[in-house]
Amino acid sequence: xxxxxESGGGLVQAGxxxxxxxxxxxxxxxxxxxxxxxxxxxxxxxxVATIGWSGGSTYAADSVKGRFTISRDNAKMTIYLQMNxxxxxxxAVYFCAARVRSxxxxxxxxxxxxxxxxxxxxxxxS
Length: 126
What we know:
4-stranded antiparallel beta sheet; 51% strand
């Protein structure tokens, strides 16, 4: 089992920045990749960014490229999502996820992840 706890959400204005954190615990040695997803009311869960746990390779959705950056701190078993230039359309609950199976290519769909955090709300006002 892997437990994930997100933090750092809040209410900000358009153009502001926020940094989300996700701390992993439990069988963290089994993690191959971690990612961030978001879900707005009435919409499906949407991929934001992912990072390979060993090599650190990253991949982000086109909608956030150039504004959001995913990173990791292996010693702290934590990943981060630095969000700059926030827009009202970024408003959503942001979820952290972990994959404990090996993979090739990019893992950018919810079904490709095995464990999920409880989510943290990000609200961007115009």
